[in-house]
Amino acid sequence: MLSEDLRDLLLRYVEGEPLSPLEEKQIVNELSTNDALQEEYQLLMKLAQSAETWADEPVPDWNRTRYISKNRPTVTWISWVSLAASVVAIVMVVFQVNVQSTDQGLYIAFGNAQPEKTKSSVSNEELIDKKFDAWKLQQARYIDDRFGEFEYQATNKNRALVNSAVRYVRQERQEESRKLLNYLQYQRANDMQSGSRQYRNTGMMEWPADSSGFSLDSNPSQMIKVSQ
Amino acid sequence: MFGFNTDEKLIHKALRGTESAWLALVKRHEQRVYNHLLRIVGQRADAMDLLQDTFLAVYRNLPNYRGDGVFLGWVMRIASNRALDFLRSKARKPEQALEGDEQNWDVQRSEDPSDNLHLSQRKKAVLRMLQQLSPEVRLVVELKFFQQRSFQEIGQHMGIPTTTAKTRFYAALKNLRQFVEVDDVI
Question: What is the pLDDT, as a whole number, of residue A76?
Fold first, then answer.
């Protein structure tokens, strides 16, 4: 019966592990004297040789990716495009990229740099300024005209309003004067009639006719006929 | 170096949906995994099915791969577990494993046909020898000799204590000694 230590030492010897001189001397001695150990040594050597001479079998062809596309999410190109667009936008904001189209072509500037002014661009700016000034003047005139027209119309409206008010007051005053006059005439006619009756009852002479010619027997429409 | 993608890079790309990265990753490791499975199950068709099953499981669990170990080791662990589950469920007998698959063990390592024949016969002998062992013990022998793992690594790979791995290994030697005595296959 072999001891476990001796078997372990034999295995290490067969596997080619470095042994101390003492261990190597021990295993060599044991192998020359111990038949059971010698037998196990032969078996281990055969197994080790079998492993060494094993020729790997080639793998038959098989579908190695048949389960990939169904299970694993893939990164689509559009996500890369959106990522690139985002990066470009961020860079343009951070570096204050200024893109201008001029007569000389496309102008790209970083930071607050401005394109150099050329003759044509200067003349264009002057022309634009002149046109803009003329347009401002035209607008100012137009606005002044509109204001003048508005004032004129407002004045006319006020005047008409005042005239109509005066006319109304005047009509009202005339109406009141007419009513007062009628009332006075009516009172006077009543007084004359009552005076005449008293005079007849007392046997005196007939009441003299009104010098104005007014009589209750006469046409009543005279009472309200007032000159306008 | 330039143009060389490490496993970590390929995993990262594969996780982002790059099909070519996954393809490169599979092609890099499939042969070792396939031969590992072949030595455990002993039949090409089963090894091929388990290979596909293994890489499907790897792909599905790729987001959970923490990268704290060698990627191939992780794949091999998955493959071993699949193979053991397969053998337990099938409860195959050793003789059945090689039936129908014996006629085509051609190897092309040498120009000399006699050498190829010799290697082919040795491969058959190795597979026949491994089929004598129970699946768990077979896996220990496979990891010890064909993957050159230490007992500690074998224990970690199989999720068993180091002493259990060692016990299984010496039990395998005992079985194999009897097998070799009966039929000197290797």
Answer: 67
Is A7 in contact with B26 (Cβ distance < 8 A)?
A: no
pTM more than 0.95: no
Residue A1's pLDDT band, with cuts at 50, 70 and 90, is low
| CB pair distance less than 8 Å for B173 and A53 | no
Q: Chain A interface, mutation test: which of B28, B32, B35, most A Cβ atoms within 10 Å?
A: B35
Tokens coding B146:
């064909």
pLDDT at B100: 46
For this complex, say whether ipTM is above 0.85: no
Q: Is B174 on the interface with A (CB under 8 A)?
A: no
Mean pLDDT of B149-174: 93
B86 Cβ neighbours under 8 A, 6+ residues apart = B41, B46, B50
Residue A162, pLDDT score: 95
Give the whole-angstrom CA distance, residue A173 versus residue B81: 124
